[in-house]
Structures are given as C-alpha cells and as structure tokens.
Amino acid sequence: MDWFTAPDYWLSRLVFQRALAGLYFVAFLAAALQFRALIGERGMLPVPRFVARVPFRRAPSLFQLHYSDRFFAGCAWTGCGVALALATGLDSTLPLWAGMLLWLVPWLLYLSIVNVGQTWYGFGWESLLLEVGFLAVFLGNDEVAPPVVVLFLLRWILFRVEFGAGLIKMRGDACWRKLTCLDHHHETQPMPGPLSWYFHHLPRPLHRVEVAANHVTQLAVPFLLFTPQPVATAAASLMIVTQLWLVLSGNFAWLNWVTIVLAVPALELPGEAPDLPATPLWYEVLVLAVAALLLGLSYHPVRNMLSRRQVMNRSFDPLHLVNTYGAFGSVSRIRHEVVVEGTADDVPRRDSEWKEYEFKGKPGDPRRWPRQFAPYHLRLDWMMWFAALSPAYAESWFGTLVERLLENDPATLRLLRGSPFPADDPPRFVRARLFRYRYTTWRELRETGACWERTYVREFLPPTRLARAREGQRP
Length: 475
Fold this sequence. Notes:
The chain is α+β, with helices and mostly antiparallel strands. Helix content is about 50%, strand content about 10%. The chain contains 19 helices and 8 strands. The chain has helices spanning about 10-40, 45-55, 70-85, 95-115, 125-135, 150-170, 175-180, 185-190, 195-200, 205-220, 230-250, 255-265, 280-295, 300-305, 380-390, 400-405, 410-415, 440-450, 465-470; strands at about 315, 325, 335-345, 355, 360, 415-420, 430-440, 450-465. Strand 1 (about 315) and strand 2 form a beta hairpin. Helix 1 runs antiparallel to helix 12 and helix 6 packs across helix 10 (about 205-220). The radius of gyration is 24 Å and the shape is globular.
C-alpha cells in the first residue's frame, strides 16, 4: 500500500525516536534514584501495601507479581540501559520486529512503575510519556518508512495536549479570560526556575501578550496540525517555540520537553529520504489494528474535552493508552510553602534552636536562588507544593516523611539537599510551619540579595517526636 508510508518524514522519525529515548532515560533515572524513600519497602507509600489492596486488572504491573527494592532497582536501571541503547540507534540495526520489541521494553517497565507509583506518579506527564511511548513501538525503524497513521496519531496526541490545556484554562480561572494570570503564575507555580523571578517582573502589558499568544497557540494552532505542509510544520514549530518559552520560565519536569518531542513528527525536515524496502504485510495489518483501537479509545478524552465539567490529566484505561491532559486550570494568587524544621532539644522550648531542612528544588532559604532541574522530576518537592495548598494532599505520606526525618533515614535524606543534623545524632523533634512567600522587588534584591521574602502564617504540624510520628501523626 503506497499510501501507508511517508518516506519524507524519515528524518523527523529519527529525531523523534532519539529524543523520546532520552526522556525515557530521565524518567527511569528519577525512578531509580528516588523510589526507596517514596514507594520502596520502607517508603512513604510502600508498593507492597498498595498491591495488597489493588488488583492486577486495575493496575497492571510487574510488581503485582513480585516486589522487592532490589527487583525495582533492577527494572529501573534496566530501563535506563534500554533507553540509552535506543538513543544510540540500536533499534535501527535490528530487524523490524526486534526493533519494535526493544521499544516495547521501556514502555512495559515504565507502565509497571507508574501503576504502582500512587500519589508520586499521579502527574499528567507520566501518562503522556506512556501514550507517546506506546505509539513509538509502531513507528518502525530503518527497514520501513514512517507509517502515515502513526504520524497522524502522534499529531492527535499533540492536539489533545494543547487544545485540552487551552480549554481547561478558558473554562477555569477567570484570569485566563482577563489575560491576567501571568501576574501571579511565575511566582506561585509549583517549582520556579532560575529565570522565573525575571519573568515575574516583566511589564504587565507583556504578560497580557503572553497569555493571548498562549490562547492562540493552544486553541487555534492545533487544528493546523492536520493541514498540508508547510502549514503543519509552521504550526508545530510555533508550539515548539511556546514550549521552549515555558522551559525557560519554570521547572515542569518533562512536560514541556515531551510536548516538544511530540511536535517533531509533524515537521517535514529537509533531507533526502533513503531507499527503503517494501513494508511487510504483517506490519501494515498490526499498525492499522492498533490505530483502530486507539481511535476507538479516543471517545473518552474527546467527550471530556467537550464537557463543561472537563477534568485534567486523567487516564481512561489501566494501560494509559489514551488519556486527557491539561494544566493550570486555576492559578494561585498567593504562594505558601511548608517549612520543615528539627531540633536536638529533648523538650522543645520557646528558645529552642530549630534547624530548617532544605529541599533541592522547592523554595526554602529566601536567599537561595532556584535552580534548573527539568526535565528531571523532583517528586517530593512537587508534592510539598500541593501540601502547602491543602494538608489533605499530604495526609497519606507526610507523617511517614516526618518519621523518616526523625530517624535520619538515608534514603529520605537523599531526596533533600542535606540534613542539618549529623548522621549519628538525629533530631529529637520535627515540626512544620506554613509561610507565605513572595518575590522580592528589584530594590529588595539589590539590598538583601534575597529573591524571596517570607512571612509566617501558621503551624502546619506541631513539634513531633518519633513515637508520635509512628502513631500516625498527620498535619
């Protein structure tokens, strides 16, 4: 079938596959380095406890069959290795069927992780990586030209990502319709980046232009993805530029990066297409069957997009094959942060010395400038932002976090910048307090060197000792 393939997109496929493999590597690396404290056997939300109450059909995963920290680490590091192999082009040296199986490995491994990751893996970009990764299995290698239907389905995902995000904004916070959301967003976003302070202090008229341009990119431009070239290339390029702007303005894990990668197959990159053999019949039948399945499953996200009660970032099947996306349907006007502190005093007093735990990414010391971490995902830092919005977000894990800090647990401390207490002398009490944070002005920055100014709001967790933490003390 001559219509089945699009040889002119062979370079776009190549760039897409290598970049996606790089994102897989980042995702597996984050899992390997953080899982013990988050979902390990002694984690805040242990996998064994989860799989004991959730059946395989609801959360299919290798870890439903067997779990140990060693086995999880083996799967995560295997995922890193396979991702690196794919990034170097190993799939192109294999027969078509073998290359497809190689792409299936990281998808199966990461699906297994996400489906037992619970709160820590409840972010939209987890499902997005899985949905895109599943389609990558059927994109082929150097033995075939890129299949047209797979290229179309990749554009369909990009359309849903952008258009869904645009709709959720227009239906959500009124500030998006008034073009005023960026007066607050750069200051209150989950994890600011090194340039976020400067973005916040851009002139307000420019913020209005930013919001208006975002609406155009998310609500109008996505339809152009399905038009002939070079219009589709122009539309995808505009989306890439917009996502790069977001990369500069904050730390959103790999959300922006996977969206950029997703736009690449819509680009008609220059380059002479190589001579490729005829497409095997079994491959054509398989790809068309998968396409029919995914289009059928698209009913749920389409219905969600059309609904006035549109929800963000939801999977409609346990394999995360077709999902709905969206971000910042509402924007906070005030930034709160939970500051966690410990003391070595046997009995906390008014004059006790409380030492603050510094996190890697979330704001803490007002003088510490934010760093760039994306596309790497600091899961605990992100959930601490949610905890500051409402203690309910932290109810299932915050008490265990406090317990691990009272024990000087090495795996937990590796999630932080470090502990203010010696390894052999943990704190006697830990407490948490809620502060309001705001960016300093240009003058305050020059005078104090601090990018943040913070004000005490209230107690988040009273001073807690180890026995109380083990009894299930909650914020």
